[in-house]
Amino acid sequence: EDGYRLWLRYDSLPKQTVERYRPHVASLVVQGRSPTLAAIREELVAGLSGLLGTKVAVAADLDRDGAIIVGTPRSSPLIARLRLDHLLRALGPEGYIIRSVRLDGRRAIAIASDGEVGALYGAFHLLRLMQTVQPLDDLDIVERPRLRLRILNHWDNLDGSIERGYAGRSLWNWSELPARVDQRLRDYARACASVGINGSVLNNVNADARILSAEYLRKVAAIADAFRPYGVRVYLSIRFSAPMELGGLPTADPLDPTVAAWWRQKADEIYSLIPDFGGFLVKADSEGQPGPRTYRRTHADGANMLAAALAPHGGVVMWRAFVYDPKPGYDRAAAAYDSLKPFDGKFAPNVLLQVKNGPIDFQPREPFHPLFGAMPKTQLMPELQITQEYLGFSNHLVFLAMMWREFLDSDTYAEGPGSTVAKVIDGSLYGQRLTGMAGVANTGSDRNWTGHHFAQANWYAFGRLAWDPNLAPRRIAEEWVRMTFTRDPATAERIVRMMLESYEALVDYMTPLGLHHIMWPGHHYGPAPWWDKAERPDWNSVYYHRADARGLGFDRTATGSDAVSCYNPPIRDLFANIATCPEKFLLWFHHVPWDYRLLSGRTLWDELALRYQRGVDWVRAARKEWDALADRIDAERHAEVARKLAIQERDAVWWRDAVLLYFQTFAKRPLPPGVERPAHTLDFYMTTSLKW
Ligand code: BDP
After folding, report:
1. Where are the chain's structural domains?
2. Options 3.40.30.10, 3.40.50.300, 3.90.1330.10, 3.40.50.360; which CATH number does 509-554+591-687 get?
3. Where does 15-143 sit in CATH, by number?
4. Residue of 373, 443, 615 lying closest to 513 (CA atoms)
5. 3-class DSSP assignment, residue 29
6. Cα of 322 to ligand 1 centre, how many Å?
């Protein structure tokens, strides 16, 4: 039980359930031959046989009651006879139907799609129904993805290290590729497909130009070959100056014809090796990365030039909006809005603007990025961070679906009330053709893929939400827990509850009430609210919390940076008014006096201290709860999670003590009753970095 199998475990179901299922699963009929059809057959044979505890019969045709028939109207004459073509076409090549049918008087379950990958998704759906012990009678399931591009972003470097990776080394073993392709790559693609992820950007956004060299492209092609049966397309992060570094050109000016020609030729070369290559992800003019600005060109100039090279092949450009150039008096929270909003409607049709969920940087909690309410003529693609850079690495148990739900449900008011982020991105508000969602992956070479067993749930949740941004976190957690840890409903419910509470608890012990970016510089593990040594002001913690004798928080209203004006009314006015600003964003938008009374009736100082304590209390309770589940979970995974929870408690205590001691030097007030006294002096925390 090392966690390698993720949520695709297929251990045999209880006898009673097997008895109920057996009449529905007497044989498997996957007609036709192709790598994807073979993958479907393989997955269903393993899954059904495992779950039922006996080998399922593979048949060439319908020869008995209780067949599972899978395919497309083209691959399977049986599926064709169901006359679902019209409906299937409407669902697209990734949509599918799972239906209880009768053919020639025989009962069967049909999994039908217009595309083979859609049929594969349907196969995984059927397995999920069984893994989570759902009935198989009278099935009539119709599914299609709400977003077209559902993509993992790997921040993997060519030397095998992973930027912000906490689960070992890169899964791509560049030195042995293309000669040897690890079985693990196939298992990665299986896992992705099982939740509908259909793209993978293989390399770090801080890109090495060499990824586009002939040598590396052959390696990339081998990975693409391994992923293809599972419908996972390969994308690459490119370095904007690659025409100079690889091509020897004197410039990378996007409007220089030789530069554009270099990219066109490079695209042709890529597609000759990888006909279904997805496209480019670009971090330009950001944190030292090269970009169009060097040549006084715009983001649109840069993105559109690359888009023109990819367009003949059907590829896309995902242009990142993570740009923030310091100017005197500027507020980082408004920087991307200021630089990109003017280009609304100026991007080519095969460009998506990839925007982080919040305006700063993957903090435990941020309000939604204002660009989501400000670019109606641009295809906006959110970028979520699955890897826990600012959320305790792979040591802390935190179920991120809660954060993502909050983000997707945020109302931008772009077209009046109800203009939620989910509707902006899925095309229902503006009808854009290209939609998508990106997640910075948390996978690595660790045997359990993600370092923490519970971090697997975040990979799972990302895929499920990219498939349907309206799914409830509870439902996602229930599925995942039943597929990974236990099918016992009472035990599952206790674990689900822990997961659902974990996000708010983490915010409590790290950055409650709208605090942000007070992590230790560089590695971002543990607290350092005192940090003020970076040369750029916005790389310092003190820039973000602005503690002084009067109070705490960043005034982003008209009396301060006025970044709040990037939001549409009435949400702008709601945030801007200290009396109506949701308390979870209070210190994000306001500089608040220490004695200001919150909804609880307590002063800011007291409430802050009690939130930190509440976070610690939760982790302690979670540890007890987990210990109490010892006899209900396999010993190996139970012990590993328990060890991580002990670290989480140590860290939560450390966060509370370090942050409160530091802010106390401004607030000059005692800790309220109920808040434990710190074990060390402030000096200790300021000179000791928390270790992971
Ligand atoms: C920051 C990370 C940095 C990334 C950057 C980005 O600290 O490693 O390169 O985001 O998203 O959060 O480009």
Report:
1. 15-143, 162-471, 509-554+591-687
2. 3.90.1330.10
3. 3.30.379.10
4. 615
5. strand
6. 9
Please count the CA atoms within 13 angstroms of the CA of 415 that sit on its side-chain side.
Answer: 12
435 neighbors 425 (Cβ within 8 angstroms): yes
* Active-site residue, selected from the candidate residues 253, 389, 411, 651: 389
Q: What type of residue sits at position 435?
A: T
The helix (run of H) or strand (run of E) holding residue 380 is strand 380-385
Burial 262-283 (b: 16+ CB within 10 A, else e): bbbebbeebbeebeebbbbbbb
Which residues on neighbouring strands pair with residue 318, listed in sequence order?
281, 352
CATH architecture of 162-471: Alpha-Beta Barrel (3.20)
**Rounded distance from Cα 115 to ligand 1 centre (Å):** 36
Query: Mean pLDDT across the chain, nearest whole number?
Result: 98
* CA-to-CA separations, 133 to 51, 141, 679, in angstroms, rounded: 10, 16, 48
CA torsion through residues 533, 535, 538, 543, sign: positive
Q: What is the pLDDT of residue 685?
A: 98
Q: Whose CA is nearest to atom 2 of ligand 1?
A: 164
Task: State the first-to-last Cα distance of the chain, in angstroms, to the nearest integer.
Answer: 24
pLDDT tens digit sequence for 24-45: 999 999 999 999 999 999 999 9
Query: Residue 414's beta-bridge partner residues?
Result: 416
> Cβ of 486: how many Cβ atoms within 10 Å?
18
| CB proximity list for 179: less than 8 A, separation 6 or greater | none
- Which stretch of DSSP H or E encloses residue 141? strand 140-143
Distance in angstroms (rounded) separating the CA atoms of residues 171 and 531: 35
Rounded to the nearest whole angstrom, what is the distance from the C-alpha of residue 167 to the centroid of ligand 1?
17
List, for residues 2-15, the tens digit of each pLDDT value: 999 999 999 999 99
